[in-house]
User: Which sequence fits this backbone?
């Protein structure tokens, strides 16, 4: 506009233009949203039905040596089963609470160890040293007819 | 005969010139020059990175002819490339070595631009696009590392994406987006394959084009000390043919180094990833992630009531952000003054990276 005062007509025109601008840009944003929404939704993977597992049989009592550990499949989760020196069985979720690696039993330490960042847990699943922020999830073990069964403890 | 050829050439040239104004381009190329001083050597590293990117594209396309990006077949297909396909081992080895050399030269290029203050006004956007290129180079490395689906890559990906997941609010959705689910599975492999061969190359080429166009438009940066010299003391090298020839010679040397590394130190494949196996003792990421990895090893579980890894991510996040936006906070260099804080910060970062990288190599 120039330095003359605006006539009511011009003000009306600006208002009309503003209105059109808001309408158009609003419409554009809505259009963009309609375009991007399905894309983002598409990228979010659908929940896969998890296999519900409440217990897993892992073999006879004498199958595992004393003072050793192994990783078993518990549904789609890895679980570490350890047979202690005294022959007792224990089990924990095998995913390190630090950054998602899978732990192992180290005879030389007598502890559960994560090789990624030197995290260590004692045989109660509690953090013994290193960076892990939380204990391992505990699983139950029972022996029935000489067969070792790992089960999810009620939370 | 020679004269005949020349005539033909002239005819072709004028045909093209009439339509595309080649003379204008030649005039522009003639004027291009590079400042000549003690630090000229650093001006070659951007070009080296460019060469290695081209090597990556070519060797990558060749690998695509046999690679299969699924959980069941990825490891087997890379094994097939390395053992059965003629020169397959060589192509794969070149791709892996060239990736490492490319990341290395991108880093050297970035540090040289930082210390020579090439990022200051009016070249801020060149710096930002360069930073984007560095980030994508590392993303290329991280995503490509998983593709052979071996044990080391599997755990590196678990840890790397888990770190992303620790970022407050946006971390979790990004983790799902990257992994294609809660865990690192075949879905993650498919996504990383897509990122590695389609999304990243696309973004990279766009950024690279902008980066190069800006350099052509503005000319190469002159460091402050050089800029202050009287005009008759400013030595330059003509870009064509002198600088270009030297760059070509350096490219030749780099290609030779690459060939030697690829032939005599072929890239290993390792053992196939098993989501139900413990992480192997002595596991380490690629060297350019090693210093961060080592820091995460040293951080205790809790720092001032906050999870240790969260503090680590916070510190790295702030550091990287500060580095990326250096044209914003460095007001002194823009005025032509010396900014010693900038230099000390740069030296600190280099020493930090070197010390923790060495620690990462020597400690278990």
Assistant:
């Amino acid at each position: 506009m120039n330095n003359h005062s605006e006539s009511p007509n011009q003000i009306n025109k600006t208002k009309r233009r503003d209105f059109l601008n808001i309408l158009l840009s609003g419409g554009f944003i809505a259009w963009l949203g309609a375009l991007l929404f399905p894309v983002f939704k598409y990228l979010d993977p659908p929940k896969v039905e998890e296999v519900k597992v409440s217990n897993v049989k892992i073999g006879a009592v004498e199958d595992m040596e004393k003072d050793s550990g192994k990783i078993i499949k518990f549904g789609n989760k890895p679980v570490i089963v350890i047979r202690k020196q005294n022959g007792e069985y224990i089990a924990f979720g095998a995913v390190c609470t630090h950054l998602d690696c899978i732990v192992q039993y180290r005879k030389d330490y007598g502890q559960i160890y994560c090789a990624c960042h030197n995290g260590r847990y004692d045989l109660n699943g509690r953090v013994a040293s290193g960076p892990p922020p939380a204990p391992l999830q505990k699983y139950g073990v029972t022996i029935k007819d000489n067969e070792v069964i790992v089960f999810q403890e009620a939370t | 005969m020679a004269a005949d050829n020349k005539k033909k050439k002239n005819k072709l040239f004028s045909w093209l010139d009439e339509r595309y104004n080649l003379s204008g381009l030649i005039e522009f190329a003639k004027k291009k020059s590079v400042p000549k001083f003690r630090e000229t050597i650093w001006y070659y590293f951007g070009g080296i990175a460019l060469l290695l990117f081209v090597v990556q594209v070519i060797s990558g396309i060749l690998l695509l002819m046999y690679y299969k990006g699924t959980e069941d077949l990825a490891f087997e297909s890379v094994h097939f490339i390395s053992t059965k396909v003629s020169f397959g081992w060589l192509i794969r080895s070149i791709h892996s070595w060239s990736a490492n050399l490319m990341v290395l030269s991108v880093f050297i290029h970035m540090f040289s631009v930082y210390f020579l203050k090439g990022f200051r006004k009016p070249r801020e956007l060149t710096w930002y696009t360069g930073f984007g290129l560095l980030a994508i180079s590392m993303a290329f490395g991280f995503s490509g590392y998983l593709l052979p689906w071996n044990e080391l890559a599997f755990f590196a990906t678990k840890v790397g994406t888990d770190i992303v997941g620790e970022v407050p609010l946006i971390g979790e959705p990004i983790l799902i987006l990257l992994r294609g689910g809660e865990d690192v599975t075949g879905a993650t492999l498919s996504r990383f394959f897509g990122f590695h061969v389609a999304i990243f190359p696309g973004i990279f080429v766009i950024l690279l084009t902008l980066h190069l166009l800006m350099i052509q438009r503005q000319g190469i940066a002159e460091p402050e000390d050089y800029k202050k010299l009287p005009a008759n003391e400013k030595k330059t090298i003509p870009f064509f043919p002198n600088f270009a020839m030297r760059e070509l010679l350096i490219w030749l040397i780099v290609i030779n180094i690459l060939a030697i590394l690829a032939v005599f130190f072929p890239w290993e494949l390792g053992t196939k990833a098993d989501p139900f196996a413990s992480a192997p003792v002595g596991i380490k990421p690629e060297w350019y992630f090693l210093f961060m990895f080592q820091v995460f090893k040293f951080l205790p579980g809790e720092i001032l009531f906050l999870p240790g890894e969260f503090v680590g991510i916070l510190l790295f996040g702030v550091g990287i952000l500060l580095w990326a936006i250096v044209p914003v906070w460095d007001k002194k260099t823009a005025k032509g003054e010396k900014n010693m804080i900038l230099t000390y910060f740069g030296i600190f970062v280099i020493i930090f990276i070197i010390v923790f990288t060495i620690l990462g190599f020597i400690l278990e």
